[in-house]
Design goal:
By secondary structure, this protein is an all-beta fold. Strands 2, 4, 5, 6, 9, 10 and 11 form a seven-stranded mixed beta sheet that branches. Strands 1-3-8-7 form a four-stranded antiparallel beta sheet, with no helix packed on it.
Length: 121
C-alpha cells in the first residue's frame, strides 16, 4: 500500500523560506512522478509542482522562480523548497503520486495527509 507522509510545514513570515518533505513507502519510489498540491479552505486543490521519474519538473505560474521541487530516490523522499514566501502561499500542502509508472505528467491517485503552511504579513 502506498503511503505518503508530509512534514516541514509551519508558521513563517513574508520573505522567509521553508522546505517541505514527503516520505513515500509501499512501492519503488523512483519509478513514479511525484507532485505537490495546495488547498485553501473553500477552494479547489491546485497543482504547485511536479517532478517525473526522469527528473523533469513543472511549476504553477504563481510559484515559478520561488519554489523548487526535487527528489532523493535513495531516501524515497520528494521535497518542495519554498523561497520568498508570500501570505498568498498560505495553504495546506499535499504530496501526491500517480498509480502509473514512468509518466510524463501526474494524475494523482495517492495523497498524503497534508501539512499546513502559514505565511504572516
Amino acid at each position: 500500500q502506498v503511503q505518503l507522509v508530509e512534514s516541514g510545514g509551519g508558521l513563517v513570515q513574508t520573505g522567509d523560506s521553508l522546505r517541505l518533505s514527503c516520505a513515500a513507502s509501499g512501492r519503488t519510489f523512483s519509478s513514479y512522478a511525484m507532485g505537490w498540491y495546495r488547498q485553501a479552505p473553500g477552494k479547489q486543490r491546485e497543482l504547485v509542482a511536479v517532478i517525473t521519474s526522469g527528473g523533469s519538473t513543472r511549476y504553477a505560474d504563481s510559484v515559478k522562480g520561488r519554489f523548487t521541487i526535487s527528489r532523493d530516490n535513495a531516501k524515497n523522499t520528494v521535497y518542495l523548497q519554498m523561497y520568498s514566501l508570500k501570505p498568498e502561499d498560505t495553504d495546506i500542502y499535499y504530496c501526491a503520486t500517480d498509480r502509473r509508472p514512468y509518466t510524463s505528467s501526474l494524475s494523482p491517485n495517492y495523497w498524503g495527509q497534508g501539512t499546513q503552511v502559514t505565511v504572516s504579513s
